[in-house]
């Protein structure tokens, strides 16, 4: 049996057992207080109405069946339907079929849709603190983000600040470390960054702005054409797997390793009022399915990236490191950005301070373990 089939079957079995237990007239309420994704305090543990199907609308920021991110959401919806015995149906709407790609936050906040799948750093215009939940240049890896979210204060802080917008988020995947981007011309020194127009979101965009770059925010479908026509000079996207499918190597042959997104959260976020009204069994099923999606997506990115990197090399693509003066300037710029944003926004400072505390401990452990191992493995 394939691992994914096993996990899906296990989730369905677990959910079936959960539903059976919950039907007992003397059932005990699920203890979410010990679960990292615990529910809101006003939860009523509503029972499922077996005679009525619950339907939810979920819009994404990705094209239909987009590799890994889009297909991961499709599998999530399928798993929820199967685990619930068909009592909960999530209808997935790819970008622009119901809601524009970068309008899903507002649509879910207002109740126009029930949920969305996207990335938190797209909403930094709402609250700069949101960019911190996606990832930080030179910061948390995918494993560290999961640890901070689930066992540190990450999830508590995320839900606290999203609740102000009537939203209730879950982790919905992680891209793992991302590449530094595709450039139409080589970067030999920091001076070559001056005046470049680059598609790059989040804190990475803020840092690159201080290096002289003009950050541009574009949805996936517009990046290749903008790069081909010279509307932008460079773009970061994700990593070899998705970059290869986007065909960036055809119009921007210089590919750089990255440090701006060492691990990037994707989000599965619900309208909070809608979430609070869901039956407790449906909430539990969604929590289990989202946790599986989060793990599967990170693993799939790693698997597909390592294969796609070989293909890119066969096509003549070379991987370049950023010049050292760019790296050092990036580190200094990050300090300035964090200091400036913390002074402007108390929410940003609260989240940033917590990440700093967590990262200090994690760095010490990584240095004694993973860093040592990777060095001697080579």
Q: What is the strand and helix layout of this fold?
A:
Layout: H1 3-23, E1 54-60, H2 69-83, E2 88-93, H3 104-110, E3 115-118, H4 142-151, H5 154-162, E4 167-174, E5 181-183, E6 197-199, H6 202-210, E7 214-216, H7 220-228, E8 234-235, H8 240-246, E9 254-256, E10 265-271, H9 272-277, H10 280-314, E11 319-320, H11 324-344, H12 346-368, H13 370-377
Helix pairs in contact: 1-10, 2-10, 6-11, 8-10, 11-12
Textual characterization of the structure:
The model is unreliable at 1-45 (pLDDT under 50). 48% of the residues lie in helices and 13% in strands. Helix 6 (202-210) crosses helix 11. The strands form two sheets. A six-stranded mixed beta sheet has the order 7-6-8-5-9-11, covered by helices on one side. Strands 2-1-3-10-4 form a five-stranded mixed beta sheet. The chain has 13 helices and eleven strands. The radius of gyration is 21 Å and the shape is globular. Helix 2 links the parallel strand 1 and strand 2 (88-93). By secondary structure, it is an alpha/beta fold. The protein has helices spanning 3-23, 69-83, 104-110, 142-151, 154-162, 202-210, 220-228, 240-246, 272-277, 280-314, 324-344, 346-368, 370-377; strands at residues 54-60, 88-93, 115-118, 167-174, 181-183, 197-199, 214-216, 234-235, 254-256, 265-271, 319-320. It has a domain at 3-176 and 263-303: Bacterial extracellular solute-binding protein, family 7 (D-Maltodextrin-Binding Protein, domain 2, 3-Layer(aba) Sandwich), CATH 3.40.190.
């Amino acid at each position: 049996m394939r691992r994914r089939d096993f996990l899906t079957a296990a989730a369905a079995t677990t959910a079936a057992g959960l539903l059976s237990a919950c039907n007992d007239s003397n059932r005990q309420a699920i203890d979410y207080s010990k679960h990292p994704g615990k529910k809101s305090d006003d939860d009523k543990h509503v029972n499922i109405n077996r005679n009525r199907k619950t339907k939810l609308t979920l819009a994404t920021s990705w094209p239909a069946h987009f590799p890994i991110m889009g297909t991961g959401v499709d599998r999530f919806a399928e798993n929820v339907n199967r685990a619930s015995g068909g009592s909960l149906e999530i209808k997935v709407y790819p970008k622009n079929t119901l809601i524009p790609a970068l309008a899903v936050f507002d649509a879910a906040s207002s109740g126009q849709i029930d949920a969305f799948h996207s990335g938190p750093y797209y909403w930094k215009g709402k609250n700069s603190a949101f960019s911190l939940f996606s990832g930080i240049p030179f910061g948390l890896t995918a494993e560290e983000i999961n640890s901070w979210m689930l066992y540190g204060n990450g999830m508590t802080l995320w839900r606290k600040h999203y609740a102000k917008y009537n939203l209730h988020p879950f982790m919905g995947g992680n891209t793992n470390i991302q590449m530094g981007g595709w450039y139409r011309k080589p970067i030999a020194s920091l001076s070559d960054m001056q005046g470049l127009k680059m598609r790059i979101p989040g804190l990475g965009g803020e840092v690159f702005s201080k290096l002289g770059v003009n950050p541009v925010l574009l949805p996936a479908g517009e990046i290749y054409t903008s790069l081909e026509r010279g509307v932008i000079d460079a773009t970061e996207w994700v990593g070899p797997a998705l970059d290869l499918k986007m065909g960036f190597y055809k119009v921007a042959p210089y590919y750089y390793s990255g440090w701006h997104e060492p691990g990037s959260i994707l989000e599965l976020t619900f309208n909070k009022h809608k979430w609070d009204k869901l039956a407790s069994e449906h909430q539990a099923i969604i929590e289990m399915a989202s946790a599986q999606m989060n793990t599967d997506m990170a693993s799939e990115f790693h698997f597909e990236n390592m294969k796609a990197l070989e293909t890119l090399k066969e096509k003549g693509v070379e991987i370049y490191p950023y010049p050292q003066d760019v790296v050092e300037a990036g580190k200094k710029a990050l300090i300035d950005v964090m200091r400036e944003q913390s002074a402007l926004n108390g929410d940003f400072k609260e989240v940033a301070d917590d990440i700093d505390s967590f990262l200090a401990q994690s760095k010490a452990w990584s240095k004694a373990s993973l860093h040592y191992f990777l060095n001697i493995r080579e």
